[in-house]
Design brief:
The protein contains two helices and eight strands. The protein has one domain (29-126). It has 129 residues and is α+β, with helices and mostly antiparallel strands.
């Protein structure tokens, strides 16, 4: 039985994948990020965080992954050589309900070698031994 909040959601419809029934709302991505928003002095903060995306954010994350694959020339360059802007955009569905989805800017190559090293250190910390 579905939660009343989920009954009208387009992601609550189960679909068949192989021999399993999958709910799209259970699909999620956990993306390690390094927030380089400038602080009050103008220097990047370099604060590590985890961006958790699910539901309506899945499409935006898949598009971001595709853009990173293209920018990194099919994975020949590491994705942490690039920066992305992330913002939130308000969307209204056909029932006049509003919600927010992420919007990722185009990948831009990082020029700061120290920042690249910080990103690599973050990536290494996420790799299982």
């Amino acid at each position: 039985m579905l939660n009343p909040t989920c009954k009208g959601c387009r992601y609550a419809v189960a679909r068949q994948v192989g021999s399993s029934r999958v709910l799209d709302c259970r699909e999620s991505y956990r993306i390690p990020i390094l927030d380089i928003t400038p602080d009050e002095t103008g220097a990047p903060m370099r604060m590590p965080a985890i961006y958790n995306a699910r539901g309506a954010a899945i499409k935006a994350v898949k598009n971001m992954n595709t853009a990173l694959q293209i920018a990194s020339r099919g994975g020949r360059r590491p994705s942490y050589d690039f920066s992305l802007t992330v913002e939130s955009r308000e969307v209204t569905n056909e029932r006049d309900e509003t919600y927010f989805v992420p919007f990722f800017g185009r990948p831009q190559e990082l020029k700061d070698e120290a920042l690249k090293a910080d990103c690599e250190m973050l990536r290494q910390s996420m790799v299982k031994p």
